[in-house]
Amino acid sequence: MNSQILKDTIDQIFANGKGILAMDESTPTCEKRFEAAGIPQTSEMYRKYRELIVTTPGLNESIGGAILFDETIRQQTDDGKPMAKVLMNAGIIPRIKVDMGAKSLAGFPKELVTEGLDGLRERLKEYTTMGAHFAKWRAVITIGDDIPTDACIKANVHALARYAALCQEVDMVPIVEPEVLMDGNHSIQRCYEVTEKVLKKLFYQLYQFKIDLEGIILKPNMVVAGKSCPIQNSIDEVAEATVKCLRSSVPASVPAIAFLSGGQSPQVAAEHLNAINKNFKDRLPWIVAFSFARAIQQPALDVWKGEQSNVKEAQKLLSRRAKIAAAARRGEYSSSMEG
Prior knowledge:
- This protein has twelve helices and ten strands.
- 49% of the residues are buried.
- The chain starts with a helix and ends in a 10-residue tail after the last helix.
- With 339 residues, it is an alpha/beta fold.
- It has one domain: TIM Barrel.
- The strands form two sheets. The chain has an eight-stranded parallel beta barrel, surrounded by seven helices. The chain has a two-stranded antiparallel sheet with strand order 4-5.
């Protein structure tokens, strides 16, 4: 492992106030989103949409890294250029989602564990030859009656640590993503308790597996009440709870935190990120940025509708949402930007 390569990659990703675009939706996820938007669910349409994203003019002004799905890193644009190469030519570092998805955890109803460690060492070596300089593994933690269990949390953070070790072995920066889902009617306090517990157990495992914490990116959820909770907290309350939770559980040696949007609307995700950076800027030991998917992509997908005639308008919306996310990273977001 070359620690300097890891640090240099992270510096490049987040330089000049940039963040990460997550465009690594699996085929089942693409199917759902395309169906909801009335777009044919075919491999060619997925390719066209990803080409729309990677060829968006000015995307590199706000995005320093992009997460790709295995299918995407092997695809080409209409003029025969590999998607990853198009991103690299624009100064955007491509990365790859390497987990195989969350599966039912045997013996633990309603809980999930992420799989994909088998053969990962070989896959990582292949991805490095294809231009991927960092990777992502997502663990999914559900809040409900009597869950998450300690067994579920331990299984997921153990897998995250093993994945991170394999990434650093080949000088790839691991994005470590322990997502506590927004689904449910739990309060913000319950989300805080679970998120804090997950993060503390995660960093214990990372320590056990000798992970260089200066060579990782943490991609956590924000601390928010469940979608079905009757009490939805204010923007400032979410920012305060999130910062308090992270300060109690994330070592200062971690260079960057890039939040997932987790099903929040584009505007709300930007408002929360902005409040975190604006209200607590002087008390954050890490870069606090974004690794948004739907919060950047959804407006563009809704406008595109699978029609070539809508590509330019969709790209304008994609670029705009990326710029809004970058403004929120700087603590300079304003609702007037929504226009």
